Structure formats: structure tokens, C-alpha cells
Fold this sequence. Notes:
By secondary structure, chain A is an alpha+beta fold.
Amino acid sequence: xxxxxxxxxxxxxxxxxxxxxxxxxxxxxxxxxxxxxxxxxxxxxxxxxxxxxxxxxxxxxxxxxxxxxxxxxxxxxxxxxxxxxxxxxxxxxxxxxxxxxxxxxxxxxxxxxxxxxxxxxxxxxxxxxxxxxxxxxxxxxxxxxxxxxxxxxxxxxxxxxxxxxxxxxxxxxxxxxxxxxxxxxxxxxxxxxxxxxxxxxxxxxxxxxxxxxxxxxxxxxxxxxxxxxxxxxxxxxxxxxxxxxxxxxxxxxxxxxxxxxxxxxxxxxxxxxxxxxxxxxxxxxxxxxxxxxxxxxxxxxxxxxxxxxxxxxxxxxxxxxxxxxxxxxxxxxxxxxxxxxxxxxxxxxxxxxxxxxxxxxxxxxxxxxxxxxxxxxx
Amino acid sequence: xxxxxxxxxxxxxxxxxxxxxxxxxxxxxxxxxxxxxxxxxxxxxxxxxxxxxxxxxxxxxxxxxxxxxxxxxxxxxxxxxxxxxxxxxxxxxxxxxxxxxxxxxxxxxxxxxxxxxxxxxxxxxxxxxxxxxxxxxxxxxxxxxxxxxxxxxxxxxxxxxxxxxxxxxxxxxxxxxxxxxxxxxxxxxxxxxxxxxxxxxxxxxxxxxxxxxxxxxxxxxxxxxxxxxxxxxxxxxxxxxxxxxxxxxxxxxxxxxxxxxxxxxxxxxxxxxxxxxxxxxxxxxxxxxxxxxxxxxxxxxxxxxxxxxxxxxxxxxxxxxxxxxxxxxxxxxxxxxxxxxxxxx
Lengths: 378, 345
């Protein structure tokens, strides 16, 4: 162990050399005798590093660096390695690739993997902390929100955002999302004091300028695309008039509905419309089923008539031929043929049917009323 | 002696340092500054609004005819400027475009509609000199803007019927159902939303000029009905739609009945035509048969009668018709020979 106090500090003992360092204590001794050298190296190192970090800077990908000299804007640089004058110049990195979203009339809540949509109807499903976050976000922008608890505050906040008065003086609930990015970093930083609030105000203003000039039908159904396009154009135009440095990437209408109380009535129209179609369709299907059947039936009737008439004619010819043949023979021996035919007929009758003979007085023959004698016997 | 000298040296050094510090100042890109000498404005430094010549010129124009010197911007040393130390002082203010957000107000329009209006505005410190004199800070400015804009908004909106502040043009509104056209207000839009906003902006600009505030635009952010009106509007919307759905329902029934009617008509036409054709065919056949029979039988009508009658008797005796019983009197011709036999002979 070396006693530092007793040694002359100007002279470095020969055993305290870098190449003789064998233990931590040796190292301590070595650094003690070299402390002056260390101090200078350390100080100049710090200065050098600070200067280095103040001179060179890297603008990350997707960012732009806005350079100010004595507070005044001097240039905007692309991503990459750059230099500046230390202390006199300062740089602010601005993300110009990131697309941000502003929501109106609802809020998307990112919980775990899935994301929920918080709307007026399900405000009570969310806990107070989250609702207060939404309220505070709006307060930070400079909007005053008063009265009630967090849930009613959020509800009235959202209601304020989605209620639209349409051009036909009706009411529509319009939810929409605005996607935006910074297109000019310098303008974004220096021109507008509260760009996000300005963006929200301008967006609400421009979309209502459009929905105020449309019917409720156009806003909620037939003109949605038009509303999206026109509002987007309007918002961009207003923002450009302030050179806000903001670019609207997209405006997307979310659910657009008539007011909640009216919705059932609106739905009943489309139901009635489809019911009408159903009635017409079923009537037609009935028609299409019955008419071909009737046509087939008609064909059947005609075919039947044709068959009947063929029968009739053939039977007639048959009857006549038989008669003619009989008559030919009859003509040869009329008397005997007559008697034969008469008796043959009796023969058939006797074979096939019950004949009852009844003594009849005063009557001159002919057919009498049938008396069912057999049955009475039984 | 050496201590005194050291103190003097140090004093001079500190003094020089303070003097140098006091003779330079930095104006940030977001700021503008007024340099006053003993309270009198001497110079104004305004940073331009980036990429917006129109607004930048508007700021410059304010000082065009004043006896103050407007620094060219940016300065030769960028944001670094010099002044006479201790004599001149610097008053900085914001140069950026700022927001004003009005509290929603209940307004009655000239056609007696009760609505809530929420307006907002963009403004800028146009004259930092006047601004510094009259409102001093942001809160003060907001209060002045509240005074001016709230009343200007109210006046301008209540002067017109509701349709003027809702609609912006006379664009034809498209509706899904024809009867909805009836409920669209027929009034022509004369001023329009933007027109009203421009009027508010103009009058507010005039009033705010004395505070050094330039009102860039006033926007009617939201218009809503008051709750009681909202309910009656919703009732109207419900009845409108109900009327349409009722029409669809009855149209459906009507069309169905029409198609059913067509169907019955068509069906009966087909069947009756078929009957007509069938009967005609049968008639023709009957004709042929009658002719054939007549030709043959007319050769000996008496024999025909005998022949046919015998055939009918046979039919009666057809073995398939067993149930037929024939009862005949004993004096029938058939028994002729039976009677003639005399057992006494």
C-alpha cells in the first residue's frame, strides 16, 4: 500500500505505471497520479460530445426537421444526417408520415386487442377514468364542458358532435372520422396556435355547411358519398386559408341515422317498401303458377273434345255399317229375319234378367210397374 | 488595492455582460414584437405567416402608414435583433392564428324558431401595439371576443329566418320519396350560412380593430333545435315516414289485387276459349255422325225403328245390369203361343 500523503505529488513513482497495474488498488494509484490528465480529457470529452450532439443530428424516417436560427425559421430538412450550428440553431422533428384520426360523435376505445366504439347509447358501459380522459382531452383543447358526472358530460359532448340540422330543417345523427397528417412541418409548427382544435372546429363547421344544404335523406342514405367528398374539400380549403400545414387524408362518414326516436319510422318505410315488393312478387308467382296450369287444362279439354268427336264419328260409322250389313240380309228375307231377331232378343233378356209375369185384366199389354215380389218373400 | 481593482474589473465585466444581453433579443417564429422607447413605439417586428402571403401582407399593412418602423423579416441575423440597451424595451406577443370558442347560445330566429347556436372564430393579433395597450393578455382577448362575437352572432342570426343560417345555397334537395318534397321549406335562400358568417366577421372585425385583434373568420359550428322544438320536429319526421310506409303498404295490396285480377281474367279466358273450341269440335263430330246415320237409316226407316228398339231391349238385358227386373203382363205378345195351347184338346 502506498501512502499518498507522504509522497511528492509532482513526481510519479516508477512502479506506478500503466504496464505495472496488477490489481484494482494499483489502478487507483495509477489514476491518482494521472488525475490532471484525466480531468482535461474528461472535460474536453464532454465538451466535444455536447458539440457533436449539437452539431450533428439525425432526422428519422417519416420525419422532417424544422431548423430555427435564433428562433426564426430558416429551413426544413428531409430525413437523414444533418449538421447545424450548435446553440444558435435548434431543430424540431415533425412526423409527416403518421396519419392521425379525429373522431366526431363517437370514440374508438382501444382495449386489449379488440376495439370498442363508445357512443351516446353505451356511455354507461365504460368506467369513469376512461370517460374523464375523453372529457379532459376536450378540455385541453380549450372547450368548456360543464355539468353532471363524467358519463353525462361525455354523452352531451358526443351529442353536440353528431346532431346535425339538415337543409329540410330535419335532424340527422352524423358520426364521422377525419384522418389527417402534417403536410408542411414548418407551417404546422408556426402558423396556428392550436392546430388540433382548429382542425376539429373547421371540420365540424364544414361538414355542417354541407349537411345543412342537403336533405336528411341525402345525409343518411342517398348522398353520403357526396357529403364525404364535399366536406373533405371544404375542410381542406378552410385549413389552407390559414396555411395550417395540415392535409386531410380522408373523411369517412360512420353511422348516419335519423334521430333515435325517429329511426323506427324510417325503418318502417324500408320494411313497407320490401313488403310491397313481396306482395307483388307473391301475386306474380301465383299468376305464373296458375296460368300455365290453366293453359294445360285448356289443351286437355280440347284434346278430350277431339277424342270424343273421333269416337262419335267412328261409332256412327260402326253403327251404320252394322245396320247396313243387317239390313242387307233383312232385305233378302224380311219376314223370317224380323221374327228371328225378335225372338233372339227375348232369348238374351230371359238369360240375363228376372222376368215376372203378371196376370193383367183389362190392360192391353206393355210394361207394368215393377213389383219386387222376391224381396217381400224374404 | 488589488481587491478593489478586482472588484472594479468584475463590476465592469458584469456591467458589460448585462449591457450586451440587454442590447440583443430573439423573436421566435411564432411571435411578434414591439420595441418601445420610453413607452413610445419605435419599431415592430412581425414574423411572416409561413406560405401565406395574403395573411402576412395583412399583418404588414397595419403599420404601413404609422410612424413606426417595421423590421424586414426575417432579420439579417434571423431571429436575433438589436436595441439600445435599457432605453428601449421589447414587448412580445403571439403571432399565430388563435381560436375563439363561443359558449352555445339560445337564439330566436326571425321566423320564431328556437335554436342553440355554437359559434367559433379564428383570430390573430393584427396590431400588437393596440393589443398590448387594450387587452394585454390572452384571457383579456378572449373576454373582448366573447363580448363582441356573442352579440354579433346573436344579432345576425336572429335577423334572418332559420333557413338562412342552415342552408348555404338554393341547391335542390334530393329526397327518396316524392311526398317528402312537400316538407322542404320553399323559401329562397338569400343570404345563406356563409353570408351570415361573413356579416358577423365583418362587423366583429370592425369592433375588434380597436383591440388590435383581426377576426379572420367566424364560423357557425353547430345549430341545434332547443329540446321542445326537437321533439316536435321528430314527431313531424315520424308522421312523414309513417305516411310513406302506409302508402307502400296500400300500394302493395293494390298491385297484388291487380295481378290477382289479371290472373283470374286470364285463367277464365283460357278455359272458356278451350270450352268454345271443344264444343265446336264436338258439334262438327255430331254433324258428321248425324249425316252418316241419316244416310243409312233413311233407306228403311221402319226397319231402323225395329232394329234399334231390339238393340235397346238387348242393352236392357246386358249382363252387366243384373239389377234390372222386368215385369210383363200375361197378355204380352211373348205369351201369344202359350195362350193358344188348349190343354182340353
